[in-house]
Hints:
Layout: H1 4-12, H2 17-26, H3 31-49, E1 52-55, H4 57-62, E2 74-77, H5 104-110, E3 116-120, H6 156-164, E4 169-174, H7 180-186, E5 189-192, E6 212-217, H8 220-231, H9 235-239, E7 247-250, H10 263-278, E8 282-285, H11 292-310, H12 312-317, H13 324-334, H14 338-358, E9 364-367, H15 382-388, H16 393-398, E10 402-409, E11 415-422, H17 427-440
Parallel strand pairs: 2-3, 2-4, 7-8, 7-9
Antiparallel strand pairs: 1-3, 4-6, 5-6, 5-10, 9-11, 10-11
Amino acid sequence: MITPVHTYCMQSVIPTVAGALTVMAEGSARPEEILEACLTRIAARNGTLHAVHYLDEAGARAMHGTGPLTGIPWGIKDNFDVAGLPCIANSRLRAGRIAATDAPLVTMLRQTGAPLLGKLATWEYGTGTGAEHFDLPNPPARNPWDTARFTGGSSTGAGVAVATGMALFAIGSDTTGSVRLPAAATGCCGVLMTPGVLPMAGGLPNTYSMDRPGPITWTAEDAAIVLDAVLGTQLRAAGSAGAKGLRVAVVRDPGPGLPAAQAELAAAFEAGLSVLSRLGARITDAKLPWPASTCLDAARVIGAAESASIHEDELHKTPELMGAALRDKLLAGMGVSAVDYLAAQRLRRAFTDAMERFWDAHDVVLCFGTLHLPPRLGVEPESSNYTMETMLTPASLAGLPALVQCTGFSETGLPLHWQMMTRQGNEAAMFRAAMAFEGATDWRSRRPA
Length: 449
């Protein structure tokens, strides 16, 4: 029997992963209460926000495992297999598909004791052009800060679910921004680890060479807790060491081919730098070896060609079942020549090598993620510009760990953000900066109404 006073408390105050673990350890809440509070929020808000595509209420309630995340409800983007649940990746092409087995990452998370709530909204096949055409089996997720606004793509439901407390953490996948963009748009923290650290197997591929799964959480500390539980790392402890002495390279200028960041993003960026400086970080101005726009050009060639290769048969046989955004991207990929694809891969190798030398003088890069506030949903070119005009692709191209976190809110209440990147295997430095900033500011106390 669930105690009404506890249920009311859990439903009224959305806990972080860290907070939920604390109240359970103290005995002031039970795992069942936290789960029921998440289910109550889904029932109340999902009809408007469309974050959850498939809710496995019975499966979540039946989860009685033990582990470091026992009692922490979570969701996963609907391009990963979960045994017994649909996995259609928001596409008519996969209608009726039921996964036979769990993706390896799902298995790893189940072993932590965390109850899985179900499958979360995504763009079709987790990819596209950045545009929303409202032509898919499920409607696009809505931004909880302003339901007329875009949620970022393509892990759209993951950001919405975490921001609203429908889930305490979520798993998305990212090729050129699909974890980080939703995190930025919904005010969450989105993290990419060194390639290969988290398995992508059992997830519908977008590309062969750039896909990575990653958690979306409300705080950087929560992301560290989840990753520690899954991987056996010590990121939370490392992050608690603070920012003192960290060599932070600041890249303010997006460079040629990209617009300047919107004014409120830029102002929050500078305010955040002052916080890190006060905390003892060693701030220096820097430039990436090559402009972000050059990385974007290479990533778009590689991504389009590899996506077209993966889905060539479907494009030839059943293009009428595809949404416009997926079809447009695959058609563009079919037009990429071998010469251009190989040139983009050579550029990628050269940029990766240049970044490796860059880390001799720096621990963390601090830059913008996207250069825009969350735009109006379905209004072009606003949505596609939000997705394409970013500084996210350098990390994608070079396989760098990266993290997006909230740096405040605009005058109209929309989330602001910045991005951190670090050397492969050096995630601890990134979490030191992110958790120090988080602990010195109060932005995590504000949730969507």
